[in-house]
Amino acid sequence: MLNIILFGPPGSGKGTQALLLKEHFKLLHISTGDIFRNEIKNETAIGKEVKQYLDAGKLVPDELTIRVLGNYADSHSSPEIQGIIFDGFPRTVPQAEALDAFIAEKNSAINVVLSLEVNDEELVKRLINRGLTSGRSDDSNDEVVRHRLKVYYNQTAPLADFYLAQKKFVSIRGVGTIDEIFAHLCDEMNKLD
Ligand code: ADP
User: Fold this and answer.
1) pLDDT tens-digit series, residues 41-79
2) What residue ranges line ligand 1, CB within 6 angstroms?
3) Residue 192 placed within a domain
């Protein structure tokens, strides 16, 4: 089983690259953002609880996020899957610790953290552009976009040290064409056994 974390700020291209990697390496793609948006769309109890956080560009509390992720992974595992690609999770140190425990229970481990590096100016441009067509409330407002970047640097970026200490952190240039970035990610994936 491969367990890959796709890491990087909002707008760094995690969702786009995760879909390509999922197809190419036959992985289960778990995006906590997609899961939450789906719950909101279906007006479930979880959706009602998390909507306020997504709309404001704040993180959903760890306890709820960890529970939702565990339920999703357990109910979507299948024999054809060669591993999991985590997209948008973990976003805090407690989430990373919970993920380590969850994966260790399955006698597995995180293989690599692939971090897409994109400068802030480019990120804001991409997010505002996406907001014009995605219908995502958190992309449409300049203030919310900037708040999400702040949350990323305060709460999520410190995770780089957590994975650097485990020698699992790899930086990938996230600017360029989708194909170029995908090729760099594949190079790193092919180094895994
Ligand atoms: P992006 O990477 O563009 O910010 P995501 O789709 O990953 O978008 O996340 C959208 C929103 O969903 C976040 O701003 C946050 O409110 C919530 N969210 C997603 N993943 C997590 C997580 N692991 N922990 C807490 N909140 C999360």
Assistant:
1) 999 999 999 999 999 999 999 999 999 999 999 999 898
2) 10-11, 14, 32-33, 36, 53-54, 57-60, 65, 88-89, 91, 95, 138, 148
3) no
Per the domain annotation, does 7 fall within a domain?
yes
Q: What's the whole-model pTM score?
A: 0.95
74-120 per-position pLDDT tens digit: 999 898 899 999 999 999 999 999 999 999 999 999 999 999 999 99
Q: Is 175 a member of any domain?
A: yes
Number of domains in the chain: 1
Give nearest CA residue, ligand 1 atom 12: 33
**130: containing domain:** 2-186
| Conformational region of residue 27, where left means phi above 0, alpha means psi within -120 to 50, and beta covers everything else | beta
Which residues have CB under 8 Å from 103's CB, separation 6+? 3, 109, 110
